[in-house]
TrEMBL record:
<feature type="binding site">
    <location>
        <begin position="122"/>
        <end position="128"/>
    </location>
    <ligand>
        <name>ATP</name>
    </ligand>
</feature>
<comment type="similarity">
    <text>Belongs to the bacterial CoaD family.</text>
</comment>
<feature type="site" description="Transition state stabilizer">
    <location>
        <position position="16"/>
    </location>
</feature>
<keyword id="KW-0548">Nucleotidyltransferase</keyword>
<dbReference type="InterPro" id="IPR001980">
    <property type="entry name" value="PPAT"/>
</dbReference>
<comment type="function">
    <text>Reversibly transfers an adenylyl group from ATP to 4'-phosphopantetheine, yielding dephospho-CoA (dPCoA) and pyrophosphate.</text>
</comment>
<feature type="binding site">
    <location>
        <begin position="8"/>
        <end position="9"/>
    </location>
    <ligand>
        <name>ATP</name>
    </ligand>
</feature>
<comment type="subunit">
    <text>Homohexamer.</text>
</comment>
<feature type="binding site">
    <location>
        <position position="16"/>
    </location>
    <ligand>
        <name>ATP</name>
    </ligand>
</feature>
<keyword id="KW-0963">Cytoplasm</keyword>
<feature type="binding site">
    <location>
        <position position="8"/>
    </location>
    <ligand>
        <name>substrate</name>
    </ligand>
</feature>
<keyword id="KW-0808">Transferase</keyword>
<keyword id="KW-0547">Nucleotide-binding</keyword>
<feature type="domain" description="Cytidyltransferase-like">
    <location>
        <begin position="4"/>
        <end position="132"/>
    </location>
</feature>
<dbReference type="InterPro" id="IPR004821">
    <property type="entry name" value="Cyt_trans-like"/>
</dbReference>
<feature type="binding site">
    <location>
        <begin position="87"/>
        <end position="89"/>
    </location>
    <ligand>
        <name>ATP</name>
    </ligand>
</feature>
<comment type="pathway">
    <text>Cofactor biosynthesis; coenzyme A biosynthesis; CoA from (R)-pantothenate: step 4/5.</text>
</comment>
Length: 156
């Protein structure tokens, strides 16, 4: 079974990496789908996020990295993915993720959303805060992998 893990990943945090490695163990194949046109202002462009992901997940033989435009469910159908994976860190995530899952289900009844619960140690980590700390010269070592930290430092 093929699953799609969509997101902005701007940048990838250790929380994302945890979800990705667990999902890769659960499904035959996992596509990490980098959304190119999310409403948020991007920090890394999609090519940078794609390049970073290719390095981060190079050791997983069943992970494919792709960028996509448009609706997540359309991309899932294009891939033949029956599952959308999303991580849940807290109650706020639960509210917004369940809303998104319900609408996605209405748009594409054949695609199921499955939530993976984040462990406590990753519950407060978000790309938005990591971005902010990094841009203000703070130390992001506890929130991203060394590969991501080096990648971001080289861009400064
Ligand atoms: O992890 P993020 O950054 O919150 O990811 C959000 C993402 C990219 C999964 C979501 O915004 C999305 O699915 N965007 C694609 C457009 C879409 O399908 N919108 C309808 C969602 S019901």
């Amino acid at each position: 079974m093929i699953a799609l893990y969509p997101g902005s990943f701007d940048p990838f945090t250790i929380g994302h990496e945890d979800i990705i490695s667990r999902a890769a163990k659960t499904f035959d194949g996992l596509v990490v789908g980098i959304s190119e046109d999310n409403a948020k202002d991007n920090f890394l462009n999609y090519e940078q996020r794609l390049n970073l992901a290719q390095v981060l997940f190079s050791s997983f033989s069943n992970i494919q990295i792709s960028c996509f435009r448009g609706l997540t469910v359309d991309f899932a159908k294009e891939l033949g993915a029956e599952i959308i994976v999303r991580g849940i860190r807290n109650v706020t995530d639960y509210e917004s993720e369940s809303q998104m899952a319900q609408l996605n289900k209405q748009l594409a009844p054949s695609v199921e959303t499955i939530f993976l619960n984040s462990p406590d140690k990753y519950r407060s980590i978000s790309s938005t805060l990591v971005r902010q700390i990094h841009l203000l010269d703070g130390d992001i070592s506890s929130f991203v992998s060394p590969i991501t930290k080096d990648f971001l430092l080289k861009l400064k």
